[in-house]
Amino acid sequence: MAKIIKKNGKKAKKSGKADDKVEQHGSVEKETVRKHGSGKHHGKTKKNEVANVGDRTGTAVRPEARADTFDEGDATSDFHEESSPLGETYHRGPVVMRGSMIPNDTTSGNLLRNNESTDWLHMDPWRVLRIQAEFVDGFGALAEVGPAVAVFGSARTKRTDPTYKAARRMGRLLAERGVATITGGGPGIMEAANRGASLAGGTSVGLGIELPHEQGLNNYINLGMTFRYFFVRKTMFVKYSSGVIVCPGGFGTMDEMFEVLTLVQTHKVTTIPVVLFDTAYWSGLFDWINGTLTERGMISPIDPNLVTLTDDPDEAVDYATRLIDR
């Protein structure tokens, strides 16, 4: 019995008429073969034609195919070869490869091969797993931190700087309220806030980042984690902080600040109080936000209200924890 092959997007005519046509055509061809059977070559040709016509009879009963649209070459190839014209098919998990895309190695072979090269560590498939692992580790480490406020600021601030002392006081005030302090884990402002929190007996968290010029986590952290990827690290800041205090800093500090503001503005997260500490430092940026961005219609007139400026560390803590106190 001939195998039925579907043709996408083509519908058959009424099967009864198609069957009659094919059967009549088959009868005519058979009669022709009997009349001209003396020629061997000619006879073989007609037999092939009859075989092809016979093949077509199977397609006519199928609603998805039209018996009168097949030519002989298509019918024969569709019947006898289901394999791809690109050759054999190779499966690697959900990935399908054919032809020149088929690798010469296998997943198991790569796993078991004793290869001193470490290039595989930097391949994108492995990066995906590493990113996933960072999320899992971060969620697991911070799940029980409790209410917390993130303190952002420069790693270059000296210990003699008044802002360093203010950040240290912020950490102490947060600890006294039972609120954890979360920083980037580095020196400068980050160290100051962690120092104030840890010396006051509070929870002092540092979320570091692997950078060539960074010194690692500071010594005033009682819960710390170092990340490879900025976006994973920033996810942890946003997820586990109920408020944000932004002290003077550079591009990294502003990146963290605008990340939070963007998420709040677009309602990706619930409202997070954002405090800019040191009005002299931030007033130029705030004036540009409140003036140029608003006047030119780049942001909504109410968007500048997402931030508050202060020079008082006590006020900064009060505002940053206002949702926690509720």
Automatic annotation (TrEMBL):
Give the UniProt keywords, A-Z: DNA-binding
Renumbered residue ranges of the record's region Disordered: 1-110
Q: Which InterPro entries match?
A: LOG, LOG_fam, LOG_family_nucleotidases
Listed Basic residues bias regions: 1-15, 35-45
Q: Which GO terms describe its molecular function?
A: DNA binding; hydrolase activity
Bias (Basic and acidic residues) occurs at: 16-34
Q: Which GO terms describe its biological process?
A: cytokinin biosynthetic process
Give the CC-aspect GO terms.
Answer: cytosol
SUPFAM superfamilies assigned? MCP/YpsA-like (SSF102405)
The name under which this protein is listed is DNA-binding protein
Name the source organism: Bifidobacterium margollesii
Lineage of origin: Bacteria, Bacillati, Actinomycetota, Actinomycetes, Bifidobacteriales
